[in-house]
Design brief:
The protein contains 57 helices and 30 strands. By secondary structure, it is of the alpha+beta class. Strands 16, 17, 18, 20, 21, 24, 25, 26, 27, 28, 29 and 30 form a 12-stranded antiparallel sheet that branches. A 5-stranded mixed sheet has the order 1-2-3-4-5. This is ATP-binding protein.
Length: 1476
């Protein structure tokens, strides 16, 4: 938008304000005759049109105005007032011969008003000329005068101006802002939301697009079932939600309707639940599968909105003030400075003010002075800033950093509320304040939105690793980092010391918080000595810190000294001569080891100096207390003054930090716990108990003794908590005797049910509690570079994670599996050792997932030589000699997969024989019978316990889960594999005829006649009125003939007939198909067997019913079912065992097999619906844009210019062959490092956000690469252009990956096979080269955060291009030298999912194989009616386009283009125009 248009819009926004009115900008390119308009509660609208007429006002300008008015009235039926804005004053020099400019305007105005009246419209037309605009800018109101300053002052608020003013405070921050060591943290999203970043405001439109798409699918699949009321209810609920999401975007000065979005989302979800209930009651399970799936997809889309709205950043989008507090050195200044730098890079207004540069005078006057704006008033400044925000389309941020610094308390205590009130007058301004947490009580901040900045807290491992990686320093290989590592200043100081000492990692053996603090103090002292050029041997800096602590104990409050006292003390150690750059105190303050605080006393506020890190101060104080204890009389020393004062019930809370430090140092020094020497009731003191708990992770390993464990159990018994939550804190500590080996020994001694009752239930209830030991270990193991971890620590972590696999909490189990995969991937010898250690574990849940983790680790391909060790362990424990493989379908699959991978990698041990292994997949048959009488024992409460009730035919497990596992298992023996049902029937018939009597043959002939009559029934009885009762009658005759025939058979012959032939004859007759597959095995006896087996394995109500019916269990019909019943674990184990026995002994046949029987095969085809996790896939999500409009990226370098608004404009656009985004630059692209790539697959989709509910334009296209014989590219290109190729599925150019990611390329190995596709007009043989992996979040695998798709080279393409997977953490493909050759860029960068291949490498490998590539870029431009629920009949046309590219002389060249326009039918066009 031009400058004049922007000025007019800003002035218009200030006009005619009224309650309930809304001001709406139209945006560039879509004005429809108006730049902006205001709509009122009664429906009327006032619109503004700016015309930058500078060179006259004659007939051309009048025509321009008339055209704008005509379009405005067409688009806005409620327009009552049309305001014309001109940058000139019209001349009124009337000469009599020619109309003046004023007369010309008045004539047009009057005629336009009359014309509107003839159309039944009441219209006013008003002129804002230059003088009118000048009058408004001259009004003595900040909103107007500020805009005058912004638009016409000599000082312009340009991007360069903001950057220039930011540079001064940025430099003044010094080391507090270090962009080179920046780590992204979630709190930055809060600042983006507060500023109303445009990126945030486009999200609702993307949500709406997704919901609309899913709604259409649900409505389509529900309608055939007659559930019209359910469909209407969902449509109505969705319509209300979509209207609010896609309504006119909120301007910066109004609130977003967050509460309405949340309420309407909940209403949609309720309507979906109601529809599911009705579907379940009225439609058979099999028939309603598609509708259930589409309802679930719609639920997932709406639930995503609900979960997003609960996030912090959306809550802040309607706030205008934010206070950020935190400890000293936590990174508050860095946070706001980094945010400001990013805002300025995007040309968004941002001003940073440092309180440390202000005095106790008027803050506004000082701020304007620092900005060189002393000549204007505060209101003018804020008004201009408000105008700059409106022009930028983003709120302007004024950040006041460190309210506590220098004169901060005196400055802000009485002025802050007025300061805020002045900003609140300007709706597009937001205020960010940072303050040290200890000053919160001294400043008037009550009522302001408040966030605590925790530094790297909660992400200490990942953030510290990123920080250290940037500095080239290896992070500690431990899942537990000291809390101080969450503080960027603490971390930076340690890094500087490491740099100075030329070290690249923290010293090994740095165990316990005491050792860490000593290291830190050495780092600080070293840096201060270097900075002040002190003699290191004199240790002046460390002595000064010790002296400060002694003085605090002697003269201060044992924690701080007054500023004067502290300065005097440090001067005694080193005289600064009055120079700041020579001052020890200044140096310690600068380094962050000491901090300056304010304390309120009776006579005013006193500035004090204390240690920045309170825990450091506490530990130093504790050292001095320990020194006062007599080792020979520990109890006496503690219980006597002065030490007894620390442990008094009324005083212990005061000294909580010191007591926690003592809880660490006391056992380190003396080998006893504090509770050993304190009175017996000390454990009842919450402060003492907390100190003990907090000490466990931070003490030296030798100080963790049996007495420690005893007190852990005592404390947990008193608090009704599991001791495992505390003991897991030390599970990976090498020197701690109570580490994972101790845990293993204790758990191993318990049988599975008793172990599950305490351990598995603990894991399930812990539920990955934030910051807890379970979550910390899993997150660390998943993210750590396994090659950096000490092997002993790796072993201990692996043992612990293996025990995590026992739980029914799927989030814990799935994530622990992935974490274990990552941890083992670089050291497969540890994986082999784990298999040995757990080979006899009595819990199939553990053995199955351990095998999965080992297989996943092998498939990472990082330690290929280690494959031998894993394969040997698998062979040794499950197949060698008399050993038998697990009686568990998935466990067998993983074990066999590990052997197959080793063979493929050339690492299979010589004693392992895969065929012998397969031959061992045998089991007893049949299943042990379980009668209804046997199940009576489980009917203790009428309907039965949770195992019994859920395993019944209509129970969740007996219905959904069991059928998913057992489908396609026939009731015929596996020995018949290879034969068809028709062959088996014919064999029975031949045998029957040989031994049948005349009467039997006669009855059989009658049965065949009845079968033939039914097959040949005229008209099939469904469509002809007089014959519609034929089918039931003929079927009844067939059934009667079957009864007569069976009555003729002797018992032995009857058994043979009923065993197979009867079912086949009747089913083949019913479907008129002799190749029908045999009947499946009856599920009823399996349900009974599973119910009994779950109980005999040890599940009892006494052990588990409290948990299984407790609040932790997820009982929603849809979703992840994150926490399942323990009973369901036992059911899963029983089902996996039953399935293994069934497939060992019975044949398999799918519908597509045409009645042919086959044996069950382990691997991708055998997993089918049974797998719940891909152990080789270690990513949790990607940046794929999915159904959102595709952004411009390096691999999608352009996007079409989509019109919106006027229907005729949309129709004109769709008929023009432009905006196709179909040039060679869409395929031949360059990444940011200038490497050249070819896009071989990409699906792109574009729409105007927020327009889907109106007549709108959409465009999409897909890039597909095919290969053909070298020299045949032209022929294939010609074939491809014979018709439109928008339906890529017909090309068969890609397929869905059936294998695990890590199996792809070797377990599904294929050669490139060129073939014709004459059914779609392609006579030239070709092949596709892409396959896609689809991972679904919110379903089975609880380690995935969201659904995503990866576009991979096909198995044949992998072989052709000599590619291998890099790893499951980086699913991209490299050549033999490890060079990246194939990637999906959306893995790391938001954009369209795509497959891209290294250009020159691709062409060279294809040429070597005698092949060449051909590309199809095909898509559509469409104009649709506003998508009311289920869509409408309105349609404006579709332009199909297909462009084909070939390689000519080594360069990508367009071969040809085909376009076809599908025009709308008359009734479609009428519906479109009616819809608008």
């Amino acid at each position: 938008m031009g400058g004049f248009e922007e000025l007019c819009c800003q002035l218009a926004a200030l006009e005619a304000l009224a309650e309930g009115s809304r001001f709406i900008r139209k945006g560039p390119g879509a004005d429809q005759g108006l730049e902006c308009y205001r709509t009122y509660a009664d429906g009327r609208e006032v619109g503004w049109q700016a015309k930058y007429f500078m060179n006259g006002f004659d007939s051309d300008q009048i025509r321009d105005l008339a055209d704008s008015l005509q379009r405005a009235m067409a688009a806005h039926p409620q327009l009552k007032r049309f305001i014309v804005c001109l940058p000139i004053d019209l001349q009124d020099n009337r000469s009599g011969r020619k109309l003046s400019q004023v007369q010309r305007y008045e004539k047009w105005r009057d005629e336009s008003i009359k014309t509107a009246a003839t159309q039944g419209r009441i219209l006013e037309i008003e002129l804002w000329s230059a003088s009118s605009i000048t009058e408004r800018l001259g009004r003595d109101t900040p909103a107007y005068s500020g805009r005058a300053r912004y638009w016409f002052d000599t000082v312009r608020f340009s991007s360069a101006w903001f950057c220039e003013k930011f540079e001064v405070p940025r430099r003044n921050l010094g080391e507090r802002y270090s962009p080179e060591s920046h780590v992204d943290l979630p709190i930055q999203q809060a600042l983006q939301a507060l500023s109303r970043a445009p990126e945030l405001l486009i999200e609702p439109a993307a949500w709406a697009a997704e919901v609309t798409y899913r709604l259409d699918g649900a409505a389509r699949t529900l309608a055939p079932h007659g559930l019209t009321f359910a469909v209407d209810r969902i449509k109505h609920a969705c319509e209300l939600l979509l209207d609010t999401l896609t309504g006119s975007p909120a301007t910066l000065d109004v609130d977003l309707p967050l509460d309405a979005w949340a309420t309407l989302s909940a209403a949609v979800i309720q309507s979906i639940w109601s529809a599911l209930t009705e579907l379940q009651d009225k439609v058979a399970e099999k028939d309603g599968a598609s509708a259930r799936r589409d309802l679930f997809d719609l639920y997932s889309s709406v639930d995503h909105i609900r979960r997003e709205l609960a996030n912090m950043h959306w809550r802040l989008a309607n706030k205008r003030e934010l206070v950020i507090s935190g400890q000293a050195g936590i990174g508050k200044s860095h946070l706001v400075a980094d945010f400001g730098a990013k805002q300025l890079e995007l040309a968004r207004p941002f001003v940073l003010v440092l309180t440390g540069t202000l005095t106790e005078a008027d803050p506004w006057e000082q701020i304007r002075g620092q900005l060189d704006l002393a000549q204007i008033s505060t209101n003018e400044f804020l008004g201009a800033l408000d105008a700059a925000a409106e022009a930028a389309g983003c709120r302007a941020v004024l950040a006041i950093d460190a309210l506590n610094e220098r004169h901060g308390v005196d400055l802000w205590e009485t002025r802050l509320q007025g300061f805020i009130a002045q900003i609140q007058r300007f709706p597009r301004l937001v205020l960010v304040l940072t303050v040290r947490d200890t000053y919160l009580q001294y400043l008037p901040l009550k009522g302001l939105e408040h966030l605590v900045h925790h530094g790297f807290a909660g992400r200490a491992g990942a953030a510290a690793k990123a920080y250290l990686d940037r500095r080239g320093i290896a992070r500690p290989s431990s899942p537990n980092l000291a809390h101080e590592f969450e503080n960027p200043l603490f971390l930076r100081t340690c890094c500087v010391y490491l740099d100075a000492e030329n070290l690249k990692q923290l010293p090994k053996g740095l165990e316990g918080i005491t050792a860490i603090f000593n290291f830190y103090l050495s780092a600080v002292a070293n840096k201060v000595e270097n900075g002040l050029r002190l003699i290191p041997q004199q240790k002046i800096a460390r002595k000064a810190l010790d002296g400060f602590l002694d003085a605090c104990a002697k003269y201060g409050d044992f924690g701080s000294l007054t500023l004067d006292a502290a300065n005097e003390l440090f001067e005694r150690f080193y005289n600064s001569g009055g120079r700041v750059d020579r001052s020890l105190l200044s140096a310690f303050l600068s380094e962050g080891v000491l901090t300056q605080e304010a304390e309120r006393h009776e006579d005013g506020i006193v500035e004090t100096i204390r240690f920045t890190f309170e825990r450091l101060s506490d530990h130093l104080r504790a050292e001095r207390i320990i020194a006062q204890i007599e080792p020979a009389d520990l109890q006496g020393s503690i219980r006597q003054k002065p030490l007894a004062a620390y442990f008094c019930p009324n005083a212990s809370w005061r000294y909580a930090g010191v007591i926690e430090a003592l809880a660490v140092q006391f056992p380190e020094q003396f080998g006893y716990e504090l509770f050993d020497v304190l009175p017996k009731d000390a454990i009842d003191d919450p402060s003492l108990a907390d100190a003990f708990v907090n000490s466990l992770a931070w003490r030296a390993p030798k100080a963790f003794t049996q007495r420690t464990v005893d007190w852990v159990f005592t404390l947990c018994k008193l608090t009704d908590q599991s001791p495992y939550g505390l003991l897991l804190l030390v599970c990976t500590e090498l020197e701690n005797q109570f580490n994972a080996e101790w845990l293993h020994h204790g758990l191993w001694q318990r049988p599975m049910p008793q172990r599950d009752a305490v351990w598995s239930v603990f894991l399930a209830e812990d539920n990955l509690s934030e910051g807890g030991a379970v979550e910390s270990l899993i997150e660390w193991a998943w993210e750590v570079d396994a090659g950096e971890v000490d092997e002993q620590r790796l072993w201990l972590a692996a043992v612990t994670l293996t025990w995590f696999l026992s739980t029914s909490n799927r989030a814990v189990r799935d994530r622990a599996t992935k974490a274990l995969v990552n941890l083992l991937s670089a050291n497969l010898k540890v994986a082999a050792a784990l298999l040995d250690k757990f080979s006899l574990v009595d819990d199939p849940y553990i053995s199955e997932r351990l095998l999965a983790a080992c297989y996943g680790a092998v498939m990472q391909g990082i330690d290929r030589a280690g494959c031998t060790a894993v394969a040997s362990a698998v062979w040794r424990n499950y197949f060698a000699g008399e050993r038998t493989p697990p009686l568990h379908l998935l466990a067998r699959d993983y074990a066999l997969g590990a052997l197959l991978y080793a063979r493929t990698a050339g690492q299979l041990p010589p004693d392992a024989d895969i065929e012998v292994a397969k031959a061992k997949f045998t089991s007893p048959w049949p299943l042990e019978p379980v009668t209804d009488e046997d199940l009576e024992a489980y009917r203790k409460r009428g309907y039965g316990d949770s195992i019994f009730s859920s395993t019944e035919e209509h129970g969740d497990f007996g219905n959904y889960t069991l059928r998913a596992w057992l489908h396609d298992i026939m009731r015929l023996p596996r020995s018949l594999a290879g034969q068809t049902a028709r062959q088996l029937y014919e064999r029975w018939e031949t045998d029957f005829k040989v031994k049948a009597t005349a009467a039997q043959l006669h009855a059989y002939s009658a049965l065949l006649r009845a079968s033939l009559n039914y097959r040949q029934r005229p008209g099939r009885g469904w469509f002809i009125e007089k014959e519609k009762d034929q089918s039931p009658r003929l079927w009844k005759e067939l059934a009667q003939a079957n009864i007569v025939f069976k009555d003729q058979l002797a018992p032995e012959m009857l058994a043979e007939y009923c065993g197979f032939a009867e079912d086949h004859l009747l089913e083949a007759t019913r479907m008129d198909d002799d190749d029908r597959r045999p009947p499946e095995f009856d599920h009823a006896p399996i349900r009974r067997w599973i119910c009994a087996r779950a109980h005999t394995m040890g599940w009892t109500e006494e052990l588990f019913e409290r948990f299984d019916k407790g609040p932790h269990i997820d009982r929603e019909r849809m979703g992840k079912h994150r926490v399942e019943r323990i009973g369901k674990k036992y059911q899963h184990i029983a089902l996996a065992e039953a399935t293994a026995r069934l497939t060992d002994n019975l044949a398999i046949s799918s519908y597509e097999n045409d009645g042919k029987l086959r044996g069950f095969e382990y691997g991708p085809s055998g997993r089918d619906m049974k797998k719940d996790i891909d152990p080789s896939l270690l990513i949790r999500s990607t940046q794929e844009s999915n159904w959102a409009s595709t952004p411009v990226t390096w691999w999608t370098p352009s996007s079409p210019r989509l019109p919106f608004g006027d229907t005729e404009l949309l129709r004109s656009w769709v008929e023009v062959e432009s905006d196709l985004c179909n040039g060679p630059e869409e395929i031949e692209v360059a990444s940011s490092d200038s490497h050249q790539w070819f896009v071989v697959h990409s699906s792109r989709h574009w729409e105007v956000p927020g327009q889907r509910r109106r007549n709108h334009a959409e465009a999409w296209s897909r890039i597909t690469c095919l290969v053909t014989r070298l020299g045949a590219g032209t022929a294939l290109a010609t074939d491809l252009l014979s018709e439109q190729r928008t339906d890529a599925s017909r090309l068969s150019g890609e397929g869905q990956l059936e294998t695990f990611l890590g199996e792809h390329g070797w377990r599904d190995g294929k050669e490139i096979r060129l073939s014709k596709n004459t059914s779609i007009g392609i006579a030239t043989p070709y092949a596709g080269i892409v396959e896609y992996l689809s991972a679904e979040g919110n379903t089975e695998d609880n380690s995935l955060e969201e659904s995503f798709t990866l576009h991979l080279p096909s198995a044949a393409a992998m072989k052709l291009l000599d590619l291998r997977l890099r790893s499951g953490k980086r699913p991209e493909y490299v050549d033999a030298a490890g060079v990246l050759r194939w990637q999906d860029p959306s893995l790391h960068t938001r954009g369209a999912g795509a497959g891209v291949v290294s250009r020159d490498y691709f062409l060279e490998r294809l040429a070597r194989a005698g092949l060449e590539p051909v590309w199809i870029l095909a898509g559509e431009k469409n104009v649709y009616a506003g998508q009311g629920l289920g869509g409408g009949d309105g349609f404006g046309g579709r332009l199909h386009h297909t462009t084909v590219f070939t390689i000519d002389g080594g360069s990508l060249k367009p071969f040809g283009q085909k376009t076809d326009l599908l025009r709308p039918r008359k009734e479609q066009l009428e519906a479109l125009r009616e819809n608008r």
